[in-house]
Design goal:
Number of helices of chain A: 4
Distance between the termini of chain A: 61 Å
Strand content of chain B: 25-35%
Helix content of chain A: 25-40%
Shape of chain A: globular
Largest sheet of chain A: 5 strands, mixed
Oligomer: heterodimer
Order of helices and strands of chain A: HHEEEEEHEEEEEH
Structural class of chain B: alpha+beta
Chain lengths: ~200, ~375
């Protein structure tokens, strides 16, 4: 093995050692939310790339890519950036919306930016409060509870807060394979997904 | 790719690069933020290249496009990035041709880096204004060129300093993103000057025709004292080989051959540098405009004052300010006293000696208030 390869392998081992530790409850939440997203995306025929896991359960960034057939029979390759969060808190309903406290104003500003090359959405997975209910597995099925909703914060107003901003996810925007495909189709047709306040 | 590396690749350069690989823009799919490219030989794949480097996610978008390209072309990402640099940047390599050992003295390595920097600055200044000597190397465009110059990886097994400059480093006056396929951008003119000037200089030294060669382009000097001064920083124990690689997106008709700067040439280069610096040239008096900053004269025998003053002068040719000291006679000193006011100016003609400021100005043949005040009763009273 050349010296360069030995050094690369050593670095890999060190990185592997660093990340190999027992998962905390927050880590499990985070990984389950990614598994949820990956399953939905795969069923929709989209690939999941550039996954970054943030520390302290601050979520996951992922980029999905899908291939959409257009009316003129051309195929558009569309990218979508996902900011993925999970929570066991009971979502608070506000009419036709779920309210969610998004931590980190920098993250909020990143999601609401209009002048971006790659559109981005926020996805929040609402997990049951009891961890025993998060996932069940039988010979018949694998069930991952409960549901994820998506929202585009593009064009949202600036925040006056220091640490967190409440955002509103439409109850109608459940993240399903069909919903994800619909998002991709709208983007392929150059539609701008903007934020609607309740 | 770090943010600074990504930002050094302009949107135009990236588009030109993917075009050179056979990708074509899909106008129907493009928006005001991204240009979508498709490749007729690659089904169902598209690249989205951001159109503007002020987009909030410009670096992410570029990295995403490059990651896709790397996967599609089955090429490691690092190799792809290296291709982009070669396509969009002129590179000058300085190779130390070792006579012995596997190390070079650290001070020599530092000297080579400084030489590379000074060579770029001297050449860029000559591109802006060809002259034998640049009093100061502080013009905006050359400094901008230097700021955007990159120091690339050296190659293992030898000591090679790679310095590359994006062709789009200095923007043209009329365009935000100069078209790489228009007339030579300033960067290309600079790297060509470095190569051509060194080539001619080495040939002149080798054929003992330095004086004739320098005389050939008196009106548009291709060689400056500053350029020679930069070359002198390469003086050490080993010869240096200089190799220029033009950005592949803007090739030149002739492939430049490597140039070898031999250590034995340095005494001659030192002599040429001395010949080109103003103190050796019989300096013609020049006209300056400025303000009188300080009066340091003394009372002469007849009770009137004369002596030194400090001026802040504007060099009309160099378009720079500098401090100077002049020694005035009684009449000139009287005018200087009148002009010792922030709102008043003087015009003088004289010879400025090089050196630290305040520079000494001598042979003053003209000293007057500027503009000349109206004085019908005695028109010559304010001029000496």
């Amino acid at each position: 093995m050349s010296m360069t390869r030995k050094i690369s392998f050593a670095r890999f081992l060190l990185r592997y050692k660093k990340t190999m530790k027992p998962l905390s409850s927050n880590d499990i939440e985070s990984e389950l939310s990614y598994a949820y997203l990956h399953a939905i995306a795969s069923k929709a025929g989209a690939s999941c790339n550039n996954v970054t896991r943030h520390q302290d359960n601050r979520g996951i960034d992922a980029t999905l890519t899908a291939w959409i057939e257009l009316q003129n029979e051309a195929t558009a390759e569309v990218d979508l950036k996902i900011q993925l969060k999970s929570t066991t808190k009971v979502p608070s309903a506000q009419g036709e919306y779920w309210s969610y406290s998004l931590q980190g104003i920098a993250r909020y500003n990143d999601l609401r930016a209009k002048e971006v090359a790659t559109p981005r959405i926020l996805v929040v997975l609402f997990l049951p409060q009891e961890s025993t209910e998060w996932l069940s597995c039988t010979t018949e099925q694998l069930v991952l509870k409960r549901a994820a909703y998506w929202v585009s914060l593009c064009g949202a107003p600036p925040s006056n807060n220091d640490t967190a901003q409440t955002v509103y996810l439409p109850k109608s925007q459940l993240l399903t394979p069909d919903a994800l495909l619909s998002i991709f189709k709208r983007l392929a047709n150059k539609e701008l997904l903007t934020y609607q306040l309740p | 790719m770090t943010d600074s590396h990504v930002k050094s690749v302009s949107p135009k350069a990236l588009q030109d690069f993917v075009k050179s690989l056979g990708w074509k823009p899909v106008d129907d799919a493009s928006t005001d933020k991204v240009c979508v490219f498709a490749n007729p030989h690659i089904e169902k794949r598209q690249l989205r290249i951001p159109l503007n480097d002020t987009l909030a996610d410009y670096d992410e978008a570029v990295n995403l496009a490059l990651a896709k390209l790397s996967e599609i072309q089955n090429q490691p990402l690092d190799a792809l990035r290296a291709q982009i640099y070669r396509a969009t940047e002129d590179m000058i390599s300085y190779r130390v041709i070792e006579s012995q050992g596997d190390a070079i003295p650290f001070p020599f390595a530092l000297s080579i880096m400084n030489g590379a920097k000074d060579l770029l600055l001297a050449a860029a200044h000559s591109v802006v204004k060809p002259q034998r000597y640049h009093q100061r190397l502080n013009r905006a465009e050359p400094l901008e060129l230097l700021r955007k110059t990159n120091f690339r990886h050296t190659q293992s097994g030898s000591f090679i300093l790679n310095v590359s400059v994006p062709l789009s480093a200095v923007e043209a006056e009329v365009s935000q993103t100069p078209d790489l396929f228009e007339e030579s951008p300033m960067v290309r003119q600079t790297t060509k000057l470095i190569y051509n000037a060194l080539d001619r200089l080495l040939h002149a030294i080798e054929t003992n025709t330095v004086e004739q060669t320098l005389d050939e382009d008196k009106e548009q000097p291709w060689l400056s004292a500053n350029f020679c001064n930069a070359l002198l920083l390469f003086e050490g124990e080993d010869d240096i080989e200089l190799q220029v690689n033009w950005a592949t997106l803007k090739p030149e008709p002739v492939t430049p051959k490597p140039l070898r700067l031999k250590q034995q040439y340095f005494p001659k280069i030192e002599a040429i540098k001395k010949d080109l610096t103003p103190s050796a040239i019989s300096a013609a008096p020049k006209l300056y405009i400025g303000t009188v900053e300080r009066l340091d004269g003394y009372e002469s025998e007849n009770g009137q004052r004369e002596g030194d003053i400090i001026l802040s002068l504007f060099d009309l040719d160099e378009e720079t300010f500098f401090k100077a000291k002049a020694s005035l006679n009684i009449h000139q000193y009287a005018l200087a006293t009148k002009a010792h006011n922030p709102t008043k100016y003087v015009m003088l003609e004289g010879t400025v000696r090089e050196g630290k400021q305040p520079r000494i100005i001598t042979n003053i043949s003209r000293f007057e208030l500027f503009p000349k005040p109206q004085s019908p009763s005695n028109p010559s009273s304010d001029r000496t």
